[in-house]
Amino acid sequence: MEDQEMQLKVRRVSDKFTESMYVLANEPSVALYRLQEHVRRSLPELVQHKTDMQSWEEQSQGAIYSVEYACSAVKSMTNSSLYFKNIDGLLRQAINMKEQISNSQGRRKRTMDSGMLKEGGEKHNSGM
């Protein structure tokens, strides 16, 4: 009987001890300590992620600006096709005028050369 009584007392003490440990393990201050420990371990990684995200955001904003700028440049180029057509027409006119000037100078030079030959021939013939 004493054995059973002793076992009962041991069981009660064991149960009370287990309950006390459970209460201590789940006490709010212990929970706050565990929370603090978790934050201390995970915070550096979170800070690194935040820094990476900010860097990626800056790079993305730069890329977006570049793409928008390129799009506006392309749009302005398509709008300027009229100006390029005008420039093309003016260049063609300038080339035609240059050819006309070259042709008229060539005729004038030939006329002057043939005139000088005639004059030179006359002078040469009259000098004899």
UniProtKB/TrEMBL annotation:
<keyword id="KW-0458">Lysosome</keyword>
<protein>
    <recommendedName>
        <fullName>BLOC-1-related complex subunit 8</fullName>
    </recommendedName>
</protein>
<dbReference type="GO" id="GO:0005765">
    <property type="term" value="C:lysosomal membrane"/>
</dbReference>
<dbReference type="Pfam" id="PF10167">
    <property type="entry name" value="BORCS8"/>
</dbReference>
<feature type="compositionally biased region" description="Basic and acidic residues">
    <location>
        <begin position="119"/>
        <end position="128"/>
    </location>
</feature>
<comment type="similarity">
    <text>Belongs to the BORCS8 family.</text>
</comment>
<dbReference type="InterPro" id="IPR019320">
    <property type="entry name" value="BORCS8"/>
</dbReference>
<feature type="region of interest" description="Disordered">
    <location>
        <begin position="99"/>
        <end position="128"/>
    </location>
</feature>
<keyword id="KW-0472">Membrane</keyword>
